Amino acid sequence: MAGKTDRISVDVVQDASRVLRCIGHPIRLRIIELLDNRGELNVSAVQEALDLEQATASQHLSLMRDKGILRSRREGVNVFYEVLDEKVVQIMNCLRACDVDTLPRRNGAGG
Questions:
Q1: Which residues make Cβ contacts (< 8 Å) with residue 35, sequence separation at least 6?
Q2: CA 36 from chain center: how many Å?
Q3: How many whole angstroms separate alpha carbon 65 and alpha carbon 1?
Q4: Is the entire prediction scored with pTM above 0.90?
Q5: What CATH number corresponds to the domain at position 93?
Q6: Distance CA 39, CA 81 (A)
Q7: pLDDT number for residue 105
Q8: What is the C-alpha radius of gyration for the chain, rounded to an integer number of angstroms?
Q9: Contact indicator for 81, 71 with CB cutoff of 8 Å
Q10: Residue 73 confidence (pLDDT)
Q11: Total structural domains in the chain?
């Protein structure tokens, strides 16, 4: 593991920023966690598991596919998704390991 004095390259920072921007939505994080736990699922299964509208699930899944986070395959009328970028699984594992519930929350006054 890199020490705190090691500098992260500009390329790594830019790649991390791209991934974090894409997955940094609560619904997308829930979708990634679901796919990480259950493996490949079709849109309907994601929609039902997370109690989402079909259009909402499809929109978030398509965005993550287009950004290289997920991969999809079509089987008849169904589209199945799975996590493509293993870095995203590592990020989810970091979130699980961190006690994010103890982080300070912003109040309504912007503080």
A1: 41, 46, 70, 81, 82, 83
A2: 9
A3: 30
A4: no
A5: 1.10.10.10
A6: 8
A7: 72
A8: 16
A9: yes
A10: 97
A11: 1
Domain span at 79: 11-98
d(CA 3, CA 22): 27
- Among 10, 18, 27, which Cα is nearest to 69's? 18
Average pLDDT of the chain, as a whole number? 89
3-state secondary structure 68-103: CCEEEEEECCEEEEEECCHHHHHHHHHHHHCCHHHC
- Tokens 């596919």, residue located: 65
107 found inside a domain: no
Classified as helix, coil or strand, 52 is: coil
In a domain, 6, yes or no: no
Tokens 């992260």 correspond to 8
109 found inside a domain: no
Average pLDDT over residues 2-22: 84
Q: Does the pLDDT of residue 83 top 70, yes or no?
A: yes
Chain segment 18-50, per-residue pLDDT in tens: 889 999 999 999 999 999 999 999 999 999 999
The verdict on residue 74 lying in a domain is yes
